[in-house]
Amino acid sequence: MLHRALIVMAAIVSCSFVGCGVLPRTPAVPADLADRAELPGLEGIRVWGDTMSPQLERALVESWRLEIEAAGGDRTAVVSRDAHFLALSGGGSNGAFGAGLLCGWTERGDRPAFKVVTGISTGALIAPFAFVGPDYDHVLREVYTSVKTSDIATSRGLISGLTSDSLADTAPLRRMLDRLVDDKFLDRVAAEYRKGRLLIVGTTNLDAQRPVLWRLGALACTDHPDKRRIFIDALLASAAIPGAFPPVMIDVEADGKRFSEMHADGGVASQVFLYPAAFSFTQFARQHGAGERKRHAYVIRNARLDPEWQSIDRRTLPIAVRSIDTLIKTQGVGDLYRIYLGCDRDGIEFNLAAIPADFREESKDSFDPVYMKKLFDVGFDLGKSSKPWVHAPPGFAAPTVDEGLLTRDAAER
To answer: What's the whole-model pTM score?
Structure first.
């Protein structure tokens, strides 16, 4: 990820360029047509992430049907198997932590095949390889221990960047994804989807100011001629940090007319997600005969959760950068609370891993291989350990009676 200082500087300096020109684009989807816009030939492949849409509910029903079908029609056998969900957060080069943890988990020997894998930003880049399984751990190790900033993006220069749609060009990242996400890999994704598993990444529709979920497993199963490009577009969009990286323009149709949607970093809407808060697994499971099934959620937050003290210079740019850092950190914690409360409501075991507070290495660049290798190793050791998870968001555990306050259990009694 480019240093946030550049993003803030772009926002400040670009004020002087207002009116200097706007890059051409196909018209945005009008507000009254936004719910009807679809990728031609790919209805329901991406859905709103802030509501439980009929398309998403149908996708979950289809997933349940496919899982039973893959078990030879034995619903009892499916219900007897625990379901495991994995949510991967944003975090730029800190994604090395999540990549390392997954590889360490493989080494430990009990990493499950996840029923659902979701990803935001750098988590979206990890998600497809985590979804396919340990056979692709070598890709995670390669990407998150050896890439450098020039492998991700190239600078456009300040003036060019401020008069364009971003300060950098992510053509190098697209070339990397084009190499890694080949037709063979898409076939592997499709095969896992047919077992009733879901791969979903999140972007932000900037025109609509709403999160969007991309059903990449379902996309891989289609015979759409451009499915590989669209798959890569969704990954690029999820990691497209506004101001630093260019948004991805998605061509759609509504009422027979052509429009475009501007998609950027999923982290603009949330740092990590599992499923819309409006959806209840309890109700869904009861309705479809899966109420007895045990479910486990694993959330990997590619960031530290503890406050990180720093003396801030009394200048505009450092103040703005520090404020954005703090906003992202607190937004991420809020996302963890939302996921935790949903899991608590739906009887899903909550497991959380984040970068340990005692990891104090500093990156010398946006993507510093030395820093990333050290962080990958921290994640690997944690994933290999017997207790990598905590079971509540930071600060959630209630004070004890000894501290003069009732515990949560006592309060409920």
So the answer is: 0.91
